[in-house]
Amino acid sequence: MKKSTVVITVILILAVVGVVGVYAVLTGRAKANADNAVMTPVQLVLSRDLSMEYPGTVKEVVKYYTEIEKCFCNEDCTEEEIEQLGLRARELFDDELKEANEPEAYLTRLKADINAFKSDKRRISSVAVAASTSVDFFSEDGFEFARIYCGYNVMSSSGKNSPQGRVFLLRRDENKRWKIYGWEAYKGNK
Questions:
Q1: How far apart are alpha carbons 143 and 177 in whole angstroms?
Q2: What angle is formed at CA 21 by the lines to CA 16 and CA 23, rounded to 5 degrees?
Q3: What CA–CA distance (Å, rounded) separates 152 from 71?
Q4: Where in the sequence is the domain holding 180, given as residue range(s)?
Q5: How confident is the model at residue 190 (pLDDT cuts 50, 70, 90)?
Q6: Residue 36: inside a domain, yes or no?
Q7: Less CB within 10 Å around the terminal CB: N or C of the chain?
Q8: Sign of CA dihedral 99, 103, 105, 109
Q9: Mean pLDDT across 108-120
């Protein structure tokens, strides 16, 4: 082989190795950056497409709703995120509850409630939705209803946890989806 052919072959091999090396480094960085990209709790809650994956049980509906509440109370949400979360919460509401809470009025009250909660420097430290076996199912006026207890631990600025509870009432809609019909503070020993 001629000396010039050997030199050209070596240069081409080095060029190919260089291009492959640069490509490997760049794709490795992109993969590392993708691995480091972690969604915030707000992004996780909002990423769920309820039209495709609506919670299937009473417990799952309430659990998802409490995830939204934790975002309201524990995360530093932008105004836009609060509105998106509020509208997402409304997707879980029964039609009658939605009618009683027009979107603008609901969002105004919601923002006031969030500000009051945060100004008291409180946080929801934990949420426990009752077991699916503890759901109280009943029928009334031709509708299927379900009642479920949910316990909250709310931490004050002093670090003290105070247990609180709510009983959620859900009604099954015409699409067989459980929707939040309302709730009230639990007044008992749970």
A1: 12
A2: 95
A3: 14
A4: 41-185
A5: very low
A6: no
A7: N
A8: positive
A9: 94
Tell me if 64 is assigned to some domain.
yes
N-to-C CA span, the chain = 90
The confidence band for 26, taking pLDDT boundaries of 50, 70 and 90, is confident
Please give the distance of CA 33 from its chain centroid, rounded to a whole number. 23
Domain count, the chain: 1
Would you call 87 helix, strand, or coil by DSSP? helix
* Angle (nearest 5°) at CA 179 between 178 and 180: 130
Between CA 103 and CA 97 the distance in angstroms is 11
Return d(Cα 127, Cα 165) in angstroms, integer: 9
Q: Can you give the CATH number for the domain in which 127 is found?
A: 3.10.450.100
Question: How far apart (Å, rounded) are the C-alpha atoms in residues 179 and 181?
Answer: 6
The conformation of residue 121, written as its DSSP 8-state character, comes to T
Which amino acid, one-letter code, is at 36?
N
